[in-house]
Write a structure and sequence with these properties.
Low-confidence stretches: 456-460
CATH architecture of the largest domain: 3-Layer(aba) Sandwich
Largest sheet: 7 strands, mixed
Strand content: 15-25%
Mean pLDDT: 95
Number of domains: 2
Structural class: alpha/beta
Distance between the termini: 43 Å
Number of strands: 15
Radius of gyration: 23 Å
Bound molecules: 4'-deoxy-4'-aminopyridoxal-5'-phosphate
Oligomer: single chain
Number of helices: 19
CATH class of the largest domain: Alpha Beta
Length: about 450
């Protein structure tokens, strides 16, 4: 008999991460990492910092696609998880109920307010979206679903059918029937579709995660009103924006919205345990779960997961206790203040935008010098110039950021909400230095860029 020890297992295989992934999980992903020089062996993480095997510190501005809102390895969430394990709570009953899910549901319903009175737990963001699609269609007795162009809602088949980015969808046709996308920000087109009174729900991110696009003034309020007028459920996808990311607990609160459906996930469990939820109006829930016979109309084995609930309760407590939502709002402002001047400073910078700690910078062809080189690089792959900034930010300044999406000259960051003023200042200074260097397009950089074409990173 030998005792299982994670520590000795990790010790005995240390340094094999990349090779093992290449052999067993995803060789193309490892190729991407190696091509752009992101192939570090990671040893440890704390808050907004990652440490590689040599002990070098990196500032993590991606936060696991925005999932580490309360910081990596947050000790108070960890303590709650250990406590839950040590209390030997009963866990999933199948035919029965436990206290933790009810407590977290009550908390989430209270935070969302407005029409939200019911909570259905899932194990991921895309599953929360699937629940919205399925329940929304059943509740309205309608089949069509509208979403926004360039929207992102997850990669399972239903969520993918609502995806507004052809690079995600074109290889997986046919998707579900009855789905259509409307331009984000255009109320006239939305009304044209809704007027047919056959749309079950309009699914929309309050701030589009791919490229960080903010809604035009009045758009979301107008969309909600049109949905009400034509009997369509208004569904706000807060998977990325929820729990303080944009400087409010939920982004929809910036505009005083009262959605019928709200999807959440990502940072709810502090990044420790897969979790998601669909928050909804009572009327939606009651039209599907309308009898004892239909008491189990939707669900999945692991949801609600006991540890996810414990982590979720601790995360909500942590957000409030540490004032992280307000911190996100304040540091987001600071970040814009420090980076907006880049638009005037550099010909190649088109726009800097953000809300709370969701931030992006967009590049475009310079009017003056460097135009030819910029064109050459963009011809190899659209958006490649952004990679010329992301790579040295990582390799020279030890800051982790990301090209926002396919075909986009946009860099996006979603830092843990625990970043400090110093972190934000360090990023702004490194960004300025890196853009300055990239704009000169030295031969070594362009050569690298051309060989790295095809290795654009962002998926989610
Ligand atoms: N909706 C939005 C707005 C998202 O940003 C994401 C993930 N990036 C999803 C849904 C899907 O969540 P998950 O990756 O947990 O399935």
């Amino acid at each position: 008999m030998s005792e299982f020890s994670l520590e000795s297992l990790l010790d005995s295989r240390r340094g094999e991460d990349l090779d093992l992934w290449a052999r067993t999980i995803n060789p193309q992903f490892v190729r991407v990492l190696r091509t752009i020089g992101f192939d570090r062996t990671w040893a440890r993480a704390e808050g907004a910092y990652l440490y590689d095997a040599d002990g070098a510190r990196y500032l993590d501005l991606l936060g696991g696609f925005g999932m580490y809102g309360v910081g990596r390895n947050n000790p108070r969430i960890r303590a709650a998880l250990i406590e839950a394990l040590e209390l030997e709570t009963p866990g999933m009953l199948a035919m029965g109920t436990t206290l933790l899910p009810g407590l977290l549901a009550e908390e989430l319903i209270g935070l969302a307010g407005g029409r939200v009175e019911r909570c259905l737990f899932t194990s991921s963001g895309t599953e929360a979206v699937e629940a919205a699609l399925k329940l929304g269609r059943a509740a309205t007795g309608r089949t069509r679903v509208l979403s926004a162009e360039h929207g992102f809602h997850g990669l399972t088949l239903g969520s993918l059918s609502a995806n507004g980015n052809p690079e995600f969808t074109e290889r997986f046709q046919p998707l579900l029937p009855g789905f259509a996308q409307v331009p984000f920000g255009d109320l006239d087109v939305l009304e044209e579709e809704l007027r047919r009174e056959d749309v079950a729900l309009f699914l929309v991110e309050p701030l589009q995660g791919k490229g960080i696009h903010l809604p035009p003034a009045g758009y979301l309020e107008g969309a909600q009103e049109l949905c009400r007028r034509y009997g369509t459920l208004f569904c706000v996808d807060e998977v990325m924006t929820g729990f303080g990311r944009t400087g409010r607990m939920f982004a929809f609160q910036h505009w005083g919205l009262e959605p019928d459906l709200v999807t959440v996930a990502k940072s709810l469990s502090g990044g420790y345990v897969p979790v998601g939820a669909l928050l909804m109006a009572r009327s939606v829930h009651e039209s599907v779960f309308d009898s004892m016979q239909h008491a189990m109309s939707h669900g999945s084995t692991f949801a609600p997961n006991e540890l996810a609930m414990a982590a979720g309760l601790a995360t909500v407590h942590e957000l409030n206790e540490q004032g992280l939502v307000e911190q996100s709002a304040r540091l987001g402002e600071r970040l814009l203040e420090l980076t907006r001047p880049l638009v005037d400073e550099f010909d190649v910078v088109r726009e800097v935008r953000g809300l709370g700690l969701a931030w992006a910078i967009e590049f475009g062809e310079p009017q003056g010098g460097g135009r030819v080189a910029y064109r050459m690089i963009e011809r190899a792959q659209r958006g490649l110039f952004a990679q010329l900034v992301v790579v040295p930010l990582f390799t020279q300044h030890q800051i982790l950021s990301q090209v926002a999406g396919h075909d986009m000259a946009v860099i996006r960051i979603l830092p843990p909400l625990v970043v400090t003023d110093e972190d934000v200042e360090e990023f702004a200074a490194a960004l300025r230095a890196t853009i300055k260097e990239a704009q000169r397009m030295p031969r070594s950089l362009t050569k690298f860029a051309l060989s790295a074409a095809g290795a654009t990173m962002s998926r989610r």
